[in-house]
Write a structure and sequence with these properties.
homodimer; mainly alpha; 13 helices; disordered C terminus
Chain lengths: 365, 365
Amino acid sequence: MKSKIMKRQNVRTLSLIVCTFTYLLVGAALFDALESRYEVERRADLLEDEMMFRNKYNMTPTDFEILRKNVERTVPYYSGIQWKFSGSFYFALTVVTVIGYGHSTPQTVGGKIFCMFYAVAGIPLCIIMFQSVGERLNVFITYTLKKIRKCLKLRNRTVPETHVILVTMNLSTLVLTSGALMFDHYEHWGFLDSLYYCFITLTTIGFGDYVALQKDDALQEKLHYVVFSLIFILFGLTVISAAMNLLVLRFLTMNTEDERRDELEAAAAAQNAIHLDGDVITSNGNVHVVSNAQERAAVEYSEVISVCSCSCYKWSSNRGKEVQNNRRRNQSIFTTTSGKNNYGRDDSSEEGDSFLQYHSKRNSL
Amino acid sequence: MKSKIMKRQNVRTLSLIVCTFTYLLVGAALFDALESRYEVERRADLLEDEMMFRNKYNMTPTDFEILRKNVERTVPYYSGIQWKFSGSFYFALTVVTVIGYGHSTPQTVGGKIFCMFYAVAGIPLCIIMFQSVGERLNVFITYTLKKIRKCLKLRNRTVPETHVILVTMNLSTLVLTSGALMFDHYEHWGFLDSLYYCFITLTTIGFGDYVALQKDDALQEKLHYVVFSLIFILFGLTVISAAMNLLVLRFLTMNTEDERRDELEAAAAAQNAIHLDGDVITSNGNVHVVSNAQERAAVEYSEVISVCSCSCYKWSSNRGKEVQNNRRRNQSIFTTTSGKNNYGRDDSSEEGDSFLQYHSKRNSL
């Protein structure tokens, strides 16, 4: 059993690696096709202009190389003062959010070392904060959707997760487009480039080819624009985190979940020779308001119980099968050799059914 | 109860927000203190050199501005051909891993639009892949540590999680330092700057102030160096993901876990009027090889059971309390009004103890 589950996890991981590499190769081919020709043309034009200048001013190659290096170094300084408080705050934000535009980077040894230590603690803190706020946002959206269903007098008040995902997706699109419009207004990049900037920022890629607050000493002069930009980044990342919380987080724990089930089964298998003795517990088992969580708890509970019920000991790594097995397992708890079998069996089968209901409910959620 | 748990989650989220903002403010102040003075001096020197040039060649401000823009644009082209297959692969990797150096960025409209769509699917795939491989790495480390303990003939074969974390941490440091040494050798940046580059890359900040493979047309000429750089990024990110998987992932699901427990309690509370009838089940409850997962399952199982045991119905949102409560809850299952109380009580208390053992075990893990 263990080896089987191990195998499943390894196969999953391997297929993920294969997918990622295929995706990278396809991406590389397409980027090559899209950009290579333009690069060659652009390169030729720029070097031609350069030669014109050098000839016009009769500049020696050495001098031009020195000038080139000088111009490269002055780029951040031409964009305004970068390290006064507001600029440093902007930089610190790009570090902990891992956006890392690189529009301005620490130049001193002390700055570089501090930046590393700052990131070590800051990045996990930031990830946890954004995920936490994102999850709260999802809860708020679910609550609002419930209220709307109430107003619309819908019979089924439970909000499908797909609806929450749809709302989060629309919210993300709204943030991106409104952000694009605002940055287009302030930076005059044009809509597509502003949208591209917003996207590259909120995915935390942060190329730095377009960076807000780098014109007309905006970091010092345009406080309202600084505040807007920071709010855009913070709110935008929250909305993206909310979407990630719904869409990605569950996949991150897949292997660990399997390990957990694996441990559970191994532990129970080790307990495979315990005797059930005594009489019947009869309880009214109709737990119909039960939740996803409770269904899972019930599955685990039935697994723990089945440690004490070697009579119908059946393991299944398949979740669906597990749920179906609860029926048999629960029977093994509620029925004994004494005369109350029917009562016990009815009871257990009722519980078995309800588990199946929860499972279907859970999938519909 | 629900409101209480809601409150706990909101308080947690709020305190995380406060922490992050405090961290950002402190960081901003320190970056300002570390970099501001150097920035002023550096800026003055560079502009002075610039003036010297302009005077030496008697260059008009307009001409110099055009030259400056030209030089800025030629930076990626001076670093070699960027968009042939190997360069495009390197770029695609910086997109899906959100490193985003920005050493070279799409210049065509098609390239920018494709880049956005490429990232939408690529980033989640990459996160899931690295987390999955990281988790496999942790499992492998645990397995190796177990084997070592076996070789050392240690009585306690269970590997504490702290040991796995320590190994992952050391592995991360090893990757960073060996990477730094290699890049120092290839790029001649000096050790500190190479370490800074490796750190900024593997945290996916990716400023782009230092970028590998940008010298001497390395992307086309030095294939072995290209392969080494890509392997460094991929293996490095796997090791960092393994550490994140152990240290951060659990915090990302805190609120969701509370919501789960909340649902569980609400569901159970709704079932608060069920009668327990019948006799005693007596089972040998020494489940000593039980795991963290099983302890949790057992806690949830006891919660499900306590739906049927309103006699000692006690809810506790505190995990520790919950575990202690199992003792009472389980007694309510195993003891009845019939003459078998002692047997039942002994049995249940034994089980209660074992739960407490698991809890302490779990904390030690």
